[in-house]
Each structure stands twice: as C-alpha cells, then as structure tokens.
Amino acid sequence: MITNIDDLDFSRQYTYADYLTWQFEERVELIRGWISRMSPAPLVIHQRLSSKLNYQIENFLRNKKCEVFAAPFDVRLINKKKKVTDKSINTVVQPDLSIICDLAKLDEKGCIGAPDWVIEILSPGNTKKEMKEKFALYEENGVREYWIVFPEYFQIQVFDLINDKFVWRSNYIKEDLIPAGIFEGFELDTNNLFA
Fold first, then answer.
1. What does the radius of gyration of the chain's CA atoms come to, in whole angstroms?
2. 126 alpha-carbon distance from chain centroid
3. Residue 121 lies in a domain
4. Domain contains 60
5. Is residue 107 part of a domain?
6. In a domain, 11, yes or no
7. Of 123, 129, 142, whose CA–CA distance to 80 is shortest?
C-alpha cells in the first residue's frame, strides 16, 4: 500500500490493480498506464458549472434508464480484445461528468467501459490533457458525445462520434441552447449555465 504519491515511480507504467493500492490524498488518473496528476481542487467557477450541468442533465434523465455521475468517479477504459481484469486495465480517468446508459457498466468501483457522454470542464493546467490525450482516449473507446467547457470564454465545444471518429458539431456560447445528440428532447440552457 502506497500512502505518498512521491513514492511512485513516474518512469514506469501502472495498472488499475496498482491504482487500487494507492492511499494518498492527491487525485491521479492513469493514461495508458502512465500516472497523470490532476489539478488541485477545482476553482469555484468550475464547481458551479459542474453543479449546474449536473442539475440540468439529472432533471432530464429522471425516470430514464441513464444516470449522470460527477467527479471524482472512476471510469476504467478497457481494451475490448483482452480479458478484463484489474491487471489488464491501464486507463482510469475521472471526467467531470459521465453519463452512462448501459447500467451494466456500473459496479461499486465506478464505470467499466466508455460512458455514452462525457463532459470535461477546463481548469488552468489541464487544457492539454483534455484537448489531446483524453480526446483521443474517449474517441478510441467509443464515447458517443464529448463536450469541452471553456469557463473563461463562456463556450462549449461539442463533438459527436460518427464512424468511430469525433466530428466537431459546433462551438456554443452563452445564450445558445445546446441539444444533446444522444438524447432527443434535451437542450442545455447556457443562460442558466453561465449566469
């Protein structure tokens, strides 16, 4: 059991089995086996946006079979060609919001497999990870819809998975209504979001 993050060897790759033995306070993600430190506690604007997004989505999903989960919530992305075990999983991420419709993917530890919809809210220091590394991970693993929220610009970039590739739908700004591609009838009111 490792209780201090500085005791980890950042020059080697780890698995989810290793991740489960870590008992330190700092949050980390595993990206293809490599440790990725998460930003310190999110800013107030980040937390407000997360709460408002969660509220609107959760209200829409009431009495539907999908659920929304806010970070910290482990999403284990898997290689579908390998037998899934804690030792075979080398990617564990904590999206700001994960919307999951295949409830069989849920267990007591979080989600195993790709959520249907992921929302990441950018914070200082995590832009590269969300825009490049996680973008590629979510695309490869079949996340059907990916939203990236830019708090300082009051903007949301939306991508839809089409033929296994993310296709940019639009940049939405304050005063726009944003439809969710995976849910008929849902529109996010950005006026309430960015108020």
1. 17
2. 13
3. yes
4. yes
5. yes
6. no
7. 142
The model's pTM is 0.94
The 3-state secondary structure of the chain, one letter per residue: CECCHHHCCCCCCCCHHHHCCECCCCCEEEECCEEEECCCCCCHHHHHHHHHHHHHHHHHHCCCCCEEEECCCCEEECCCCCCCCCCCCCEEECCCEEEECCHHHEECCEEECCCCEEEEECCCCCHHHHHHHHHHHHHHHCCCEEEEEEHHHCEEEEEEEECCEEEEEEEEECCCEEECCCCCCCEEEHHHHCC
In whole angstroms, what is the distance from residue 107 CA to residue 87 CA? 17
Q: What is the CATH number of the domain that holds 54?
A: 3.90.1570.10
Do residues 68 and 58 touch, judged by C-beta distance below 8 A? yes
pLDDT in tens, the chain (195 residues): 888 898 999 999 999 999 999 998 888 999 999 998 887 777 899 999 999 999 999 999 999 999 999 999 999 999 777 888 999 999 999 999 999 999 999 999 999 999 999 999 998 766 776 788 899 999 999 999 999 999 989 999 999 999 999 999 999 999 999 999 999 999 999 998 987
Q: Which domain holds residue 183?
A: 43-193
Total domains in the chain come to: 1
